[in-house]
Amino acid sequence: MVGKYLRAGRNWGHVAARAAWYGTISCSLGGLPGGHPISQWCMRKWSAGSADALNIQRSLRGAENLALAPQAVLVANHLSSLDILVLGSYLKRDYRWLAKASLFKVPFSGWHLKFAGHVPVYRGDDRAKNQDIAARIHAVVEEGASLLFFPEGTRSEDGRLKPFKIGAFMTAVEEGLPVLPLVVRGTHELMKKNAIDLEIRTDRACSVTVLPPVAVPVGGDHKARAEALRDRTWEVMAAELGGAPGATPVAADASS
């Protein structure tokens, strides 16, 4: 047991050290006018360096689809805390996370989120603080940046694709942006929800597959269009997860 905690401390010490270094750069320079490219660079360097330190082998598939939607609502399945490192290694465009507000309080990485203009989402008793979230999202879109959502709302406990919440898709409808699905694989096997450290294994391969953009449906009110967009996006991501050779995630019921 002691060895497990020592190993976890060593692994996350590497991640924390990089967060302190790149978070300081991001907070110092990223908040200046025109500083967003610096913050994005810091995010990529922190993500890639941390993943390398944890010996996570990463690959990107479907990269050609990124150019089909230069500005989009990015949606990714959420399997593990490691998803952030794997996704952050590859996203070179200007984008903002929609992340739970508690993450903004974490030293260095949370300060980076704040100064880089990412959007906090409040939960529980603080939900009233979300009243201006639409305006904050619109401001991001006006800057020409993309938005990144985990539409399941939380990490999957068993690797199955959970039902999607409507928020990301309502944003796509209201802002007139396509949805760009990002399918993450391998992170659940490495570090499950609530685990304190990675599994001990030699195979640490993870991947991100970029699927073709999903256009906003035409006709109907905003809610109906958002629901149709949500369901279509869930279907293509579930098909990708369920149809890949050796894929362990199995699509869950998306009826709710």
User: What would CATH call the architecture?
Assistant: 3-Layer(aba) Sandwich
Q: What global shape is seen?
A: globular
Mean pLDDT: 87
Largest sheet properties? 7 strands, mixed
Overall number of strands: 7
Biggest sheet: strand arrangement: 1-7-6-2-5-3-4
Q: What is the C-alpha radius of gyration, as a whole number of Å?
A: 18 Å
CATH C-level label: Alpha Beta
Q: What report would you give on this structure?
A:
This protein is an alpha/beta fold and 256 residues long. The protein has one domain: Glycerol-3-phosphate (1)-acyltransferase (3-Layer(aba) Sandwich). It is built from eight helices and seven strands. Helix 4 links the parallel strand 3 (95-100) and strand 4 (119-121). It is globular, with a radius of gyration of 18 Å.
Sum this structure up briefly.
This protein has one domain: Glycerol-3-phosphate (1)-acyltransferase (3-Layer(aba) Sandwich), CATH 3.40.1130. It has 8 helices and 7 strands; from the N terminus they run H-H-E-E-H-E-H-E-H-E-H-E-H-E-H. It has 256 residues and is an alpha/beta fold.
Write the layout of secondary structure elements.
Layout: H1 2-30, H2 36-53, E1 57-61, E2 73-76, H3 83-90, E3 95-100, H4 109-115, E4 119-121, H5 133-142, E5 146-149, H6 167-175, E6 179-185, H7 187-190, E7 205-210, H8 222-243
Parallel strand pairs: 1-7, 2-5, 2-6, 3-4, 3-5
Antiparallel strand pairs: 6-7
Please supply descriptive tags for the structure shown above.
256 residues; single chain; Glycerol-3-phosphate (1)-acyltransferase; alpha/beta; 8 helices; disordered C terminus
